[in-house]
Every structure is written in C-alpha cells, then in structure tokens.
Amino acid sequence: MDPWSLPLTQLSGVGEERAKDFAQLGVESIGALFYYFPIRYEDFRLRDLTEIQHGEKATIRATIYGLPTVQYYGRKKSRLTCRLVSGPHVVTAVWFNRPYVKEQLVPGKEITITGTWDMHRLQVNVEKHRFATPKADQALEPVYRVTGSLSQTFLRKIIRQSFQQYGAHLEEILPASLLLKYRLASRWDALRWMHFPQDLRQGSWARRRLAYEELFLFQLKMQAFRMKQRRELGGITQVFPQDQVEQFIERLPFTLTGAQQRVVVEILKDMASPFQMNRLLQGDVGSGKTLVAAIALYASVLAGYQGALMVPTEILANQHLQSLQELLAPYDIEVVLLTGSLPSRQRRDILAQIQLGFAQVVVGTHALIQEDVTFQRLGLVITDEQHRFGVEQRRILRAKGWLPDTLFMTATPIPRTMAITAFGDMDISRIDEMPAGRKEVETYWVKPQLLERILRFVAKEVAKGHQAYVIAPLIEESDKLDVQNVLDLYQTITQYLPHLTVDIMHGRLKNEEQDRVMEEFTAGRTQVLVSTTVVEVGVNVPNATVMVIYDADRFGLAQLHQLRGRVGRGDDQSYCILIADPKGEVGKERMRIMAEIQDGFILAEKDLELRGPGDYFGKKQSGLPDFLVADLSRDTTMLEYARGDVEQFVRQEQFWQGQLEPQLLQWLERKGIFSEQLLD
Q1: What is residue 386's predicted lDDT score, i.e. its pLDDT?
Q2: How many independent structural domains does the chain possess?
Q3: pLDDT value of position 673
Q4: What's the domain range around 417?
Q5: Residues 423, 287 share a domain
Q6: Which three-class secondary structure string do you get for 613-635?
C-alpha cells in the first residue's frame, strides 16, 4: 500500500470539502501529509523561573497561593490576577479578558501556565493554562500553516491518525549503508519526530535525516538524468596531439596559475572522452578564463573541429576577438567575428567561411544562433557570461553541431552549494586563484555626505590620465525608493566637474547608443561614465582606476564585486568607493564585508549567508528547488556528501539493472527519469 497513492478522504474526518482545503496547502495524499511539516513548535517544557529571561515565553509549574481577583474596564474587557508559588518564588499570574477562569483557581491547587515572563513585575501574562503536567510527547506542540476549515487541533489529530493507520506502510528510501554510515534515523522515526518531538534533540535528529534525504534524492534525480543522457547520446571524441597543446601553453605570454592548469586538464580530459562535455567554468573577474578558453579552442582546432564563442554584447565580442587573434593567429588559425551590426556583404562572406570550415574559431553575439549560420564541423561551444543567455538560446547554438562539447563560463562567483544544486547536471570547474602580481582594488565605505570629497578624488585620478565609473541603482527618480538615480547623479557630476568629459549610460538607451557610449569610454575619450549596472559584465577598460557606487547597500555582495571588477585591470592602483548609509544591520554588515574581502568566492558564500538561497538566485530564474527541510546556506557539507554518495550508485551498472538499491530506481521511474521534461 503506497501512502502517496491514497487520498486524504481515507482518513476519518476528512471529507471532500476538507480535502479541498488540504489541496490549497499542496497536500493531496496521505504520503504528502507525512511531509507537511510544522512551521514552528510551541514550547511547553517545564522550566524554572531562574532560567527564564525577561520578556521570554515559557512554561512553569506552580501552586495557587492567593484568591483570584477580577477587574473590569471598558466594554467586555477584564484583568484577572492570582498569586502563585513556583519553587521559592511568589509570582502574579495575569489573564486578560478571561474572567471565567476565576472559578477554576482554587488555593492549593497545582497549575501549569504558559506565558510571557515580566521579570521586573514578577508577573506572567498567561496565554495557556492547564491543571495537568504536560506529557513528554506534548511538551513541544507543532504549529502548522492552516487554511479554510482546518484548525491546529484538527491538523494535529489527523496527522496522528495517519501515522497510526498508514505509518507502517512508509518504506525506507535511503540505502541501509548510508543510514549506518551517517547514523541517520529511519524514515518512520524522522517523520514522527518532525511532527511530534519529545525534545529538541529528537527534532534535530529528524531534521538531519530529512535534510540529507532531500539533498540525496535531488542529486539522484539530477545525476541519473545526466548519466542517462550520456549513456544514450554519447558525444564526440576530440583527438589532439597532447605535445602540441603543451607547447602552445608554454609559448603563452602569461604563465598559467595552478588553478588554470587544473581546469585546463579537466576540460581537455572531457573533450578527449567519448561523452559530450557539459561543464561550468567559474572564475573571478581577471582570473584568466579567456586564456583557458583559448587553449580549449586551440585543442579543438587541432582535432579537426571548429569552435564557437558566444558573448552577450558586441563590445565584449570585439574584446574576445582581439584576444583570441593575438593568441591563435601565430598558429594560422582563422578567428572571425559574427555580430548583428556587420554589413550584409561582410556577413555573407563570414557565413561562407564558417560553412566551408575556413573560419576555425567564430566569436559572436546572438547572431551565432541565426538560422543561416551553418558550421562545417562544430566541436566546441563556449558561452561567456552564460546567465545572460536563455536556455533555448544555448540549446540552439549547441544544435549547430552534432553533440559538441560545451563550456559555460561565468565571472559571477556562485556559492558551491548553489552551483551544485542549480547546475547539478554539469561538471563544475573553478579558477580560484588570481594571476601573480595583480593588485587588489582598495575598497572604502563612506557616507553620502562625503560626495564632494569623493568627486575631488575622481578629478585627481582623471588628472593622472585615468578614468572613472560612477554607478547609481535607478535610472530616474522614484517616489517609492529614497535612492540616487543616474539622471540626477549625471547632472550633479557634470556641474561639479565641468572641465571633465562625462557621459551617461543606462538600459533605456538603444543598443546602438549604448555601444557608442561604451566605445567612447573604452577609447578613453570619455573620462567619467555615470551608469546603472549595465556595465556590470564584460567591459574591459584597463585605464579605469576608480569605481564609485552610490547607494551601495541596495546591491548584493556578488553584484558589488562584479562592479568592482570593472577596475583594477591595468598596472595602476585602483579604487572602489561604496557610498551608503544603511539603516539595518544586514546592510552595514554587507558594506563591512565588501570593504574587507576581495575573494569573490568567499563573498558569494557570505552573500548566501546574509540573503538566503531564495533571494540569492531567484528560484524562478535558477531552477532552484523548494526544499522543505534542507537549507543551502548551512547544509554545504551535507550536500557535498550527498552528491558523492549518489555518484557511487549511478556509476555502477548493477544500479541501472535494478540489482543495487532497487527502491531508488523505482523512485526515479515514478519521478519520470525517462521523460525529457525531467529537469524543466
């Protein structure tokens, strides 16, 4: 008997109407009811008054000492007081608007009360009382989200009933070896303790078991889907002379860092395997991802294939074109550019070169996924700043070849737990080491009152021949938000620095105008660029040494770090100035962290701690699951272990034949592992 297939109407007291109320809570079966967890617990554990802090809610056992008195005031309002003795303490218990309790308060009788302790008045404002001592299994009372006709009392009763009638049919899902390895509670015990813990220790055991179960099953779904695709589709095997790749690396103008060497090995190993590479490359701003991409493209060309690099903007496309031509041209590798602004005749020539295979490496924007773009033999697809492209756009580019190896690159450091979860169907590489000699960007947090002083500093840097960014969170004034906007800030700066060339950039400008503004700044003809966060990604101006961010507390740490990464790209010392006056502690902590920490991966972890997984990524954009128990900001180690444990199973042929932990394979079948829509 499968509890997940049994309707709630099997339980006495649940008719069609109540079943509809349960459905609004997302509970449509008895199995789902077991996993409808409390949002909190009412704590009725008996405590001594000496343990209770002022203003804290607690439960005490006492003896009625004096006669109760009632005071009436206003309409239907009353105040009932009674003296109680709890241990050596004499306290006053107060019931508001419950005069009928007076008849129950007999001197000498024992009573258990729950309420807020007022240490100064030696008084308890009573919320609940009973004349019996709470049983051990009632000391922590679950509190659920309810709706319609569902009450807390009814929900507790119906969940107890479901355990009594159908709990025995709850089959264990986790392998016995893992229960033993991590000393995890059984599924039955964990679910029962989650709803009705006798103490906090039981609740902790329940949470640990169920959080691991969630993470394990999620990883099982992701990795099984990925393994299934590998087994069914395969991929291309790119065979290239290893010695020539090593010579290419030795002749590069830069020495690879240890991290770059590590990810190059990982990528080349994937390309040489018979399976399609599906890898995410994370690297902080300036960590050398382009160099790694160039090595992968060179290896692919040696193997007889073409490579494509898709980027979100034409400016970034031109930057990559220049970099790759400098690195690959000495080896007679033809690198071409394909963007939407190319003249028709030039575009036709480029398309012909791509189709005939003369163009071995193609750098482009969205123009790469147009229907008339045909590759002769596409072997490697690289997407830079992959989050700027939709799933469908990335899929279309991959479809230009037959199962080409795919590398997604991002300069946005992602917390490890988030990367494993949101990109669980990919292998993940991290360049977590900066090139030697790169100067850290000095970062300062200042109050808005110092704006004039900051602008004097900007003018001083410009006088040295450098350039500056000034960032605002909004385009124009808002009556809902008291924050700086880019239009007003532009006016302020042009008035204060009339001798400088100042330009403005924001998302409402047409693409051609944005390109013009950025070209002027990149060429050094604009000295100060006032902008929104549209400059966050991909702009490389080594001459820019100052980044001023207004209302910096309005941004997350990851976004602030991206903005800071626009400077510090040349040989001169660079500066990032955060202008903010946060009122809350979280905002202040964010500014302190930003001023102290340069490492993007550490910042990403701190950002996750401050914002939580839902706010960090935005679940709709990222495909993050709604975990019931697991918390990505604190269950990092647990997720790592769950991922490794899943890998042990899905790599074994016995698993797929149903000879190893068959309950896991059955669970995957129920979840639609054989459906192409599994990860949608």
Answers
A1: 56
A2: 4
A3: 67
A4: 242-431
A5: yes
A6: HHHHHCHHHHCCCCCCCCCCCCC
- DSSP designation for 547: E
CA–CA gap between residue 382 and residue 387 (Å, rounded): 13
Q: Is 674 in contact with 250 (CB distance < 8 Å)?
A: no
The answer to the question of residue 13 being in a domain is: no
Burial (CB count <10 Å: 0-12, 13-18, 19+), residue 410: buried
Question: Percent of the chain having pLDDT more than 70?
Answer: 91
d(CA 532, CA 554): 12
| Model confidence pLDDT, tens digit, residues 157-179 | 999 999 999 988 889 999 999 99
Q: What is the CATH number of the domain that holds 301?
A: 3.40.50.300
Do both 461 and 419 map to the same domain?
Answer: no
Question: pLDDT tens, 179-202?
Answer: 999 999 999 999 999 999 988 899
Please name the residues in contact with 516: beta carbons below 8 A apart, sequence gap of 6 or more.
none
Statement to judge: residues 390 and 282 lie in one domain: yes
- Alpha-carbon span 596 to 189, nearest angstrom: 46
The answer to whether residue 672 is domain-embedded is yes
Q: What is the CATH number of the domain that holds 94?
A: 2.40.50.140
Q: For the beta carbon of residue 511, count every other beta carbon within 10 angstroms.
A: 11
The verdict on 293 and 379 lying in the same domain is: yes
Q: d(Cα 215, Cα 421) in Å, to the nearest integer?
A: 9
- Does 259 share its domain with 403? yes
Q: What tens digit of pLDDT does each residue of 67-102 get?
A: 999 999 887 899 999 999 998 999 999 999 999 999
- Rounded to whole angstroms, the Cα distance separating 413 from 93 reads 55
Do 334 and 225 belong to one domain?
Answer: no
Distances (CA, A) of 151 to 147, 156, 460, 474: 8, 9, 68, 45
Cβ–Cβ < 8 Å for 312, 538: yes
Pairing of strands 110-118, 89-96: unpaired
